[in-house]
Sequence to fold (156 residues):
Amino acid sequence: MTSKERSTCGTAGRREKLRELVETGGRVGVLGTVDDKPVGWIGAGPRLGFPRLRGSRAAKLIEGDDPERIWSVVCLYLTRDHRHQGLARVLIDRAVEWARDEKAEFIEAYPEDDRNPETPFERGSFRGRVSTFESCGFTVVEPRLQHRALVRKDLR
Fold:
């Protein structure tokens, strides 16, 4: 969805749009389960499949980038009782495998930058943390906005 579409459709509309994508075979991320129960989600896919990234300052392309060759992680969520158990890394690693299988050259994300313990960050965000992505082999390309960073993993 574009930013305008997202802001005008509300939570129920976004949920319905996601349901339609999944029911029509759209691949929009990786679902994490424990004992066959959903406990986490990572929204990932080709960068061009996320129209909101086009105008995002946090996801601004680097000069020379070919957006057709980049995959993006746009959302990372775990249920409260499944956090701090390494499951975020499992979801990130699975998204990386998927991007590699689809011949992406890079996969990137725009997480909260938690490297400086004195810098506050949005604890309720669904973007993940730089330290988690670094533990999965991503490299910080550059800081973005006040408390965010562009992280990337080369899949070539």
